[in-house]
Design goal:
By secondary structure, this protein is of the alpha+beta class. The protein has 9 helices and 11 strands. The strands form 4 sheets. The chain has a 4-stranded mixed beta sheet, sandwiched between helices. Strands 2-1-9 form a 3-stranded antiparallel beta sheet, with no helix packed on it. Strands 3-4 form a two-stranded antiparallel sheet. Strand 1 and strand 2 form a beta hairpin.
């Protein structure tokens, strides 16, 4: 992926900082401020694990102040779109959606006529937002980015943090607030998050971006061992943790909804499709049919975006298939 180097845009297949010995290692996100109800301290149990031993700068939740920059191709950005929809925060937090294709300038907000869709900051490409926040920034330029329109800086670009903020800080502005990280299930949720993140959420990227056969096969094996375990678990349970979908379910959903259209072919995760797993495919349809979720998913953006990664697909040809029917009956109503 292209990246910034001391505020200057440079082009690389994958940021050099994310490759070690032929294996892909996702670079940590760098903007990690937090939003609370009143700008006061955040409870340490709400913080994602890597922040719990740090001092986190906080800002108050306000309707209309914050803006999400996202791409519907990206699973991490899609987490934030799902939380925004589930909570009913469309009126409180605005969104700018990037074009699905990653061009030489990275994430773009330009329409075909050359006009930007970002009427607030007027940027053409996401890297310009990063430089506005930090003129000397070096590193990857990723979505989602939660922008503060008042201080003109990125608050946070870590999706795991952003969804917790949307879940806890903005209830006063939510049309239908929902608790996706309830106190009584937090340990179980974080256990599932830990099991799924490296081996599956990021495991597909480790397979797709691997530069050696050994690194690819290790990632491939992690992906399918995890999918097999999830299939066994979800054969007798409707959701991962509770009787309704919680944070861990949605963090899994964003990977599985992309799997057959992108990861199976382009990332060479081709042992089995999600369609070949009866429980997982039913679970996937179940979550996709939850109120408001389908509007956050674009299979067209997913296919056009992933298959535009030129070092993986030099021809740029986007496959016509697969045919996915995410609205078909899921048949999981009777499970516990």
């Amino acid at each position: 992926m292209p990246q910034l180097l001391n505020g200057r845009w440079v082009e690389d297949e994958v940021a050099a900082s994310e490759m070690r010995d032929g294996a892909f290692h996702r670079e940590p996100t760098r903007f990690r401020r937090w939003i609370t109800v009143d700008g006061g301290p955040v409870g340490p149990r709400l913080l994602t694990p890597e922040l719990r031993e740090t001092t986190v700068e906080t800002l108050p939740a306000e309707a209309g102040r914050y803006r999400l920059y996202v791409a519907k191709i990206c699973p991490w950005a899609s987490r934030t779109l799902i939380w925004r929809a589930l909570e009913g925060l469309e009126e409180a937090i605005s969104v700018v959606v990037a074009n699905p294709e990653l061009g030489p300038d990275g994430w773009s907000f330009l329409d075909p006529d050359g006009r930007t869709r970002d009427e607030v900051e007027g940027i053409d490409h996401l890297h310009q937002l990063y430089v506005k926040s930090d003129p000397g920034y070096s590193g990857k330029v990723s979505v989602p980015a939660l922008w503060d329109t008042r201080t003109k800086t990125i608050v946070n670009n870590e999706s795991a943090d952003i969804v917790r903020m949307l879940d806890t800080a903005f209830d006063a502005f939510a049309a239908h607030p929902v608790d996706l990280f309830p106190a009584e299930q937090r340990d179980a949720i974080e256990e599932w998050n830990g099991r799924i993140y490296d081996r599956l959420n990021n495991g597909v990227y480790r397979a797709g971006f691997a530069k050696t056969q050994t690194a690819y096969e290790a990632a491939f094996d992690d992906v399918f061992a995890t999918l097999d375990a999830l299939e066994a678990h979800l054969t007798t349970r409707r959701f991962l943790v509770a009787e309704r979908p919680l944070e861990a379910d949605w963090r899994l959903f964003v990977t599985l909804v992309r799997f057959d259209a992108a990861y199976y072919g382009l990332f060479k995760c081709n042992l089995r499709r999600i369609a070949d797993y009866p429980a997982l495919s039913g679970w996937l349809r179940d979550l996709h049919q939850q109120p408001g979720v389908a509007a956050t998913v674009s299979i067209d953006h997913i296919k056009r975006g992933y298959w535009s990664i030129r070092h993986l697909n030099p021809s740029g040809i986007v496959p016509k298939g697969p045919a996915l029917d995410l609205d078909a009956p899921h048949g999981r109503e009777g499970l516990g």
